[in-house]
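Possible regression after last week's pipeline update?

I re-ran a chain I had predicted before the update to compare outputs. Posting the input and the new output here so someone can diff against the archived version. Not blocking, just want to make sure nothing changed silently.
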Amino acid sequence: MNPNHIAIIMDGNGRWAENSGKGRKFGHQKGAKSAREVVRYIGSLGIEYLTLYAFSTENWGRPIKEVNLLMSLFIETLELEINDLNNNDVKIKFIGDRTSLKDSLVKKIEKAELLTATNEGLKLSVALAYGGRWDIVNATKILFNKINELKISLKDVDEKLFSSSLQLENDPDLLIRTGGERRISNFLLWNIAYTELYFDDVLWPEYSEKNIDEAIEFYKERKRRFGKNV
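New output (post-update):
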């Protein structure tokens, strides 16, 4: 059975550009093209949820020129792709700290979410200015405010309620990381407690349908016990 929810850490744009003798801008542009193709292919497989790690809270520490380039690319990609996503019944949601983003990008995000809000095909979440630790702290603040406002009591707080306060509505079955690194990089720390992890050496701009198929085959071979001896 295919996974219901795939999450991807899209790593390797910069290294791919360097290996190709190109600037980092070219690598990020090629990475955006790969993301578009992956979204279309995963949607065609009937998988319900896809979450892409586009920009982490730590990425703010990159050179300002590269950060500005990425922000501009996000706006450009949204403008180019949103109608196609909508026509293909994709519902898009952005997760992360929007207060750190420029108003121009936030407006594009809100417009894209509103346009696709009633779509019933692939549910695409894009993690932008996102960090797993930030997500957990943010969920804690949400619950604290609800307790202060007497909407809930402390005894009501359990794993299910905490999970509902996180950015992502459900947990991934399969997490793919491209680019050869073997780490999580502060992504969905709560949500991946029992997610199957698949690390691929292929750099993101070269990622293909074949690579997705291989990751899914890996997932199908796993026996998911969720801590139980079954």
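Follow-up from reviewer: compared with the archived run. Residues 64-87 form the longest helix (24 residues). Marking as no regression found.
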